[in-house]
Amino acid sequence: MGTRRTYGSYNDGCATAHALDLIGERWTMIVVRELLLGPKRFAHLQQDVQGIGPSVLAQRLQHLESEGIAERRHLPAPADVDVYALTERGLRLEAVNTALATWAADSPGLLWDADMSPDTLVLAMRAHARPRVDRADPTVVALHLVDSRREGAAPVAYTATMTDERTTVVRDAAGPAAPHAVLRATTRALKRVIIGGAALEPSPDLQVEGERGAVDALVRATALHA
């Protein structure tokens, strides 16, 4: 198979065409998406980007490195591992990811019942995020998401903070010291609430500890439809 020709090679000087030369090849933007919330090891990327082979993943990461969008870093002991991370330029692609997700949300072909990785679901929550309007003091929820696509997957920790100015959700391995509530859920269960509009009902796949009102506020602040 020959090398894919770029739009630039056809004398197309449009910046959009150049952007597609950088991130438009199959899997590239999906790899970027999975790095937007923080660095990951190669093996973890392979788990999160289901369907991609190791050679293709390596090629996409090499391309992103060569374009200054991603970089490989070595974490010192005790981790002592190599990870891939987005550069400052790469992190600006969250706005692109948000715009694409918002544009496609009303597509009749969107697979509403398909699963999402933990980071992908949190990125959707960030895309829909609104300030908390009923309380000025910060409200903090520790969020632990388990990837529904993989049996035995370990939970991924995030911290959601709501104020009257904004709502943020970040990946946070340490977790907040004293959250108002803890929400533990599978990605499938929380997606039904955040994107599908289902009521937040405790179940084996969705558990609330602490202030239920704080979790309800998080849903109101990050659901697709307020």
From TrEMBL:
Keywords: DNA-binding, Transcription, Transcription regulation. The keyword Transcription applies. GO terms for molecular function: DNA binding. InterPro entries: HTH_HxlR (IPR002577), WH-like_DNA-bd_sf (IPR036388), WH_DNA-bd_sf (IPR036390). Residues 14-112 form the HTH hxlR-type domain. This is Transcriptional regulator, HxlR family.
